[in-house]
Amino acid sequence: MWLTKIAINRRITFIMIFLIIVCLGLVSLINLNIDLFPEITFPVVGVITTYQGVGPEDVEKIVARPIEGALSTVSGMKDVISIIREGQVMTLVRFNWGYDMDVAVTDVRDKLGLAEAFLPSDVSKPLAIKFDPSMMPIMVIGVSGRDDLFQLRNITDEKVAPHLERLEGVAQAWVWGGLEREIQINLNRDKLIAYNISPREITNAIQSANVSMPGGSVKKGGMEFIVRTVGEYSSVDEIKNTTVSVSQDGTPVLLKDVATVLDTFKEEVSSILVEKNVLNSLLEGFLLAILVLLIFLRNFRSTIIVGLAIPISVIATFIVMNGMGCTRYRNARR
């Protein structure tokens, strides 16, 4: 009560104190250093696994469930969730804040070694990474030209990116966008049934034919030559003429007899990033709080007093933040 009486009797003094707090808070906000990549260790380990050409339901049953089962026994683990799409699954292992993430990544990789024994041979090796803000790209460069998107992609991949990676301080240069070549094999169900061939046999036949293997070495005239058997496809026609089976009368069944082979491009996947304006959210929250206070207090004067206390309290925290050396985050816009 004594503080309330002093505030009433010395209104001008307290008004000046609040104005000083507001001014110092705004100055502190301006002086807060901007940090694009603040030192934050997120208690999350991500595991990325790919299984090309397999639908989401099969990916969940064949890949996601064994990995989740193995990771559910990691010490310090809070929960495990999986994000599944066609041919790929990302499993997120969340830990409590403050947990040593170096230890967490090591434990996750150990458990993944056990899970790999239950995965099909053509599933990629699960990659475990911890989320680090420094992994975000710091510069985005657009490439344009008179060539088509396929040629621009090749030029950027083969010439531009390697030169950028040679620059001092550059860890890696990623290339995305444009068009990437893709050979699509569309199976004919009726013909597969007629020849009694399964899709797995088609996959195995293509993998067996598209292999280059070392053939040892040959010594001649004091020189040693490395021999390598080249078996990789060099044209679409070679893929079409791959023998996938043998019919009952002994006739080879070629891939083009049971499927359509197309030389095309990968399907583009578009991503939309929605950035929410924090200042607008704060303003909306403040106005909503004022409205709720007015409804319950039913007193405009009391509502104004409480409403002024909210932003003044927020602004006062900037003084403490500046004194503690805190930084403010700025989102990189692309």
Brief description of this entry?
This protein has helices at 2-9, 11-31, 56-71, 101-115, 149-165, 189-195, 199-209, 236-240, 255-258, 278-297, 300-323; strands at residues 33-35, 44-50, 77-85, 88-95, 127-130, 181-187, 213-220, 223-229, 243-246, 252-254, 259-265, 327-329.
Taking the sheet with the most strands, its summary is:
4 strands, antiparallel
What is the mean pLDDT?
83
CATH architecture descriptor name of the largest domain: Up-down Bundle
CATH topology of the largest domain: Multidrug efflux transporter AcrB transmembrane fold
The computed structural class is alpha+beta
CATH class of the largest domain reads: Mainly Alpha
Principal-axes geometry comes out as elongated
How is this fold's topology laid out?
Elements: H1 2-9, H2 11-31, E1 33-35, E2 44-50, H3 56-71, E3 77-85, E4 88-95, H4 101-115, E5 127-130, H5 149-165, E6 181-187, H6 189-195, H7 199-209, E7 213-220, E8 223-229, H8 236-240, E9 243-246, E10 252-254, H9 255-258, E11 259-265, H10 278-297, H11 300-323, E12 327-329
Parallel strand pairs: 1-12
Antiparallel strand pairs: 2-4, 2-5, 3-4, 6-11, 7-8, 9-10
Helix pairs in contact: 2-11, 3-4, 10-11
What does this structure look like?
This protein has 334 residues and is an alpha+beta fold. The protein folds into three domains: 2-38 and 275-329, Multidrug efflux transporter AcrB transmembrane domain (Multidrug efflux transporter AcrB transmembrane fold), CATH 1.20.1640.10; 44-131, Multidrug efflux transporter AcrB pore domain (Alpha-Beta Plaits), CATH 3.30.70; 181-265, 2-Layer Sandwich (Multidrug efflux transporter AcrB TolC docking domain, DN and DC subdomains). It is built from eleven helices and twelve strands. The chain has helices at residues 2-9, 11-31, 56-71, 101-115, 149-165, 189-195, 199-209, 236-240, 255-258, 278-297, 300-323; strands spanning 33-35, 44-50, 77-85, 88-95, 127-130, 181-187, 213-220, 223-229, 243-246, 252-254, 259-265, 327-329. The protein has a four-stranded antiparallel sheet with strand order 3-4-2-5, covered by helices on one side. It has a two-stranded parallel sheet with strand order 1-12. α2 (11-31) packs across α11 (300-323), α3 (56-71) packs across α4 (101-115) and α10 (278-297) runs antiparallel to α11 (300-323). The longest helix is centred in the C-terminal third of the chain and has 24 residues, at 300-323. It is elongated, with a radius of gyration of 31 Å. The two termini are 54 Å apart. Mean pLDDT is 83; it is low at 271-275.
